[in-house]
Amino acid sequence: MTAAGRSRRALLVVSVVLLVSLIAGLAAGAAVISPRAIALALLDRLPLVSLHSGLQPNEEGIVFQLRVPRVLLAAVVGGLLALAGAGYQGVFRNPLADPYLLGAAAGAGLTVTLVVVFLGGDAGVAAVPVAAFAGAVGGVVLAYALGHTAGRGGGTATLVLAGVAVTSFLTAIQTFVQQLKVDELQRIYSWILGDVGGGWEQLRMIAPYAVVSTVVVLLHGRLLDVLSVGDEEAVSLGLHATRVRFTVLLAASLATASAVAVSGLIAFVGIVVPHVVRRLAGWSYRVVLPLSFLGGAAFLVLADTIARTVLAPAELPIGVVTAFVGAPFFVAVLRMTRRVET
Amino acid sequence: MSGDAAGPGVPAVEARGLGVTLGGRPVLADVTLSAAPGEWLAVIGPNGAGKSTLLRAVAGLVARQGEVLVNGAAVDGLRPRRRARLVAYAPQSPALPPDMTVYDYASLGRTPYISYLGSESARDREVTRSVLERLDLDDFATRPLGHLSGGERQRVVLARALVQQAPVLLLDEPTTALDLGHQQQVLELVDRLRLADRLTVVTTLHDLSLAGQYADSLVLLAAGRAVAAGPPGRVLAEPLLTEHFGARVRVEPGADGRPLVHLVRPPLPAPISAGDER
After folding, report:
1. A10 touches A291 (CB < 8 A)
2. How many CB atoms lie within 10 A of CB A315?
3. A220, closest residue in chain B (CA to CA)
4. What is A3-334's CATH number, 2.40.70.10, 1.10.3470.10, 1.10.10.10, 3.20.20.140?
5. Which keywords accompany this UniProt record (chain A) (predicted)?
6. What's the pLDDT at B141?
7. Which helix (H) or strand (E) element contains residue B246?
């Protein structure tokens, strides 16, 4: 199959999975609503389309006021995390790079906690995205610097080990801050384990950051492909390798920060999704980046659907679901990259 | 010599007073080299003499002192994309992502012709295709780099450099890790392309006989300095090689008059006989 044919097939597969997971996410929950009726009701909302969905008014309320914003937020967060993961993987030429494992998510988590705890109120809420961004960049830079000094050319695992160390350290500080303010504990705790229940308000808060970071990362697909042959050769081809890596690093960190600011720490989306996409669509970042966004959206909507149905009426933190799927997957990817390296 | 942009007598590539310091240690000092349009210049020297660094300095990949001129014009002021249209560089062990296809890899050579956020034009694809065809790689176009043999990989790297359409080609040890037959094939190919396109080729070569066979002129580097330069017959001289390589060699003219360098085994030490006293 040609590369273009392969990408088209992959796009089709990912789009279908996304569509199915969106409808499943809207249908599942405490009140089970017919997926068909939801599909009709959604089509009915399109301009120039008029359909009778058969939804009761209270069901309409559940779908459009509760579930649509929740599913959308999950989709956006999942898309951002997977896109950030793919972007970091290109920047570091490391298939194990992930917003969570790199320390970006933990950095954002710490700064957001600091802002929530010490600023509080409206000022705190307004500062959340900026704080998250600063924290995400700080986390990655710390992990990268640590990995760089710890082992020059130490392979893909060194960066991840450094990231894990940074993540643990920053999370420890975060826990310390929480314990200082035990009264805030419940609020922060539920946020840290991942939560996409925030709705329209949170979507609006991160929209500008999400759009900018997504667009910037997507525009750099071809340049990340050039970088994949190494900085020196990229420079000999006339590319500002450092500028490209820096730009994508910032944009991926902004994407991570936007996701973390509304959903807390959700691990493994950034590894699992780009990896599956590569298996489907090949190596080129021009295809991997956009498909990772769509695939990440599907993955997190499904994870959220499982999280709120499997123990219903209780809700499982979404990070538990992604870790449950992602951790074994991570081991598989690690084994595969080790085999390639040796 | 005719048909060159800068007129007759102007070298295609010239370096003056190149100096490179890596980690506080001077690796190159005051190296000068020059290659006429269509000429093959080989950089030789013992391990650690700075051959690869010299190539990377000419390519603008390491911070350096001194000046590099292409067709008589300094490259330092040029934008990176402009410079990449003049000088193509292939490292000794290029990173070849195993899943990338031959076509996609070769097409990276079009990078200097594509704007920052742009994408390939029909012309870019056309150039890539024709180079692959020329190097008998068209059947390999969709094959992943991880599935190639050493000789095929070297041809693919060469293809990427040619797709760049630069008049000056810098090749760092193009025959590394190839067996005799493939070494010859790659060097013959480089030579054919050089003659057909009037490319100026600068290579590092650790095999002195190969350097003597293919290059029009040689630069001998030792401890970061150019200690000899000129036609193979002059640079491949026994006293020079003995001094700078610490090797016992014999240099003989080959059938075409170009020098062949042979290693000569030092006389054996006196055999240790069983009756020696302990």
Report:
1. yes
2. 15
3. B117
4. 1.10.3470.10
5. Cell membrane, Membrane, Transmembrane, Transmembrane helix, Transport
6. 92
7. none
Among B59, B101, B117, the residue with its CB nearest the CB of A236 is B59
The pair of three-digit structure tokens given for residue B247, joined into one six-digit string: 């090797």
pLDDT at residue number A342:
43
Distance (Å) of CA A45 to CA A64, A71, A73, A322, B52: 11, 17, 19, 32, 65
Asked if B43 contacts B55 with a C-beta cutoff of 8 angstroms, the reply is yes
Q: Can you give the residue ranges of every domain in chain A?
A: 3-334
Is the pLDDT assigned to residue B215 strictly greater than 70?
yes
pLDDT for res A20: 93
Phi, psi for residue A186 in degrees, rounded to 5: -55, -45
Sheet holding B40-44, edge to edge: B87-90, B168-172, B200-204, B40-44, B217-222, B225-230
- What residues of A are in contact with residue B121 (Cβ under 8 Å)? none
* Residue B248 CB-half CA count within 13 A: 4
**pLDDT score of A197:** 62
**DSSP readout, A12-34?**
HHHHHHHHHHHHHHHH-SSS---
Nearest Cα of chain B lies from the Cα of A244 at a distance, in angstroms, of 10
Cis peptide before A313 (omega within 30 of 0): yes
Question: How is residue A52 written in tokens?
Answer: 């009778």
pLDDT at A60: 80
Instruction: Give A302-320 pLDDT, tens digit per residue.
Output: 999 998 888 877 778 888 8
Q: Which residue of A has its CA nearest to B92?
A: A233
Q: What's the pLDDT score for residue B126? A: 94
What residues does B170 pair with on adjacent strands?
Answer: B89, B202
| 8 Å CB contact between A76 and A298 | no
Burial status of residue B149 (CB atoms within 10 A of its CB: 0-12, 13-18, 19 or more): exposed
Question: In B, which residues are within 8 Å of A275 by CB distance?
Answer: none
What are the structure tokens assigned to A36, written together?
């068909």
B94-131 confidence digits (pLDDT tens): 989 888 999 999 999 999 999 988 889 999 999 999 99
**What DSSP string runs through A142-170?**
HHHHHHHHH-TT--HHHHHHHHHHHHHHH
**Structure-token pair, residue A261:** 């600011």
Structure confidence at residue A312 (pLDDT): 72
The amino acid that residue B87 corresponds to is V
Strand partners, B50: none
- Closest partner residue to A226 (CB to CB) among B83, B85, B111 is B111
Angle between helices B150-163 and B122-134 (to 10 degrees): 140
pLDDT level of residue A1 (50, 70, 90 thresholds): low
Say which amino acid occupies B170.
L
Integer angstrom CA distances of residue B166 from A170, B72, B126, B172: 49, 15, 16, 16
Structural tokens at position B266 = 């030092």
Average pLDDT over residues A166-170: 91
Q: Which of residues 25-64 of B touch A (CB under 8 A)?
A: 56, 59-61
CB A271 within 8 A of CB A96: yes
The tens digit of pLDDT for each residue in A217-252 reads 999 999 999 999 988 899 999 998 888 988 998 999
Q: Which residues pair with B250 in a beta bridge?
A: B262
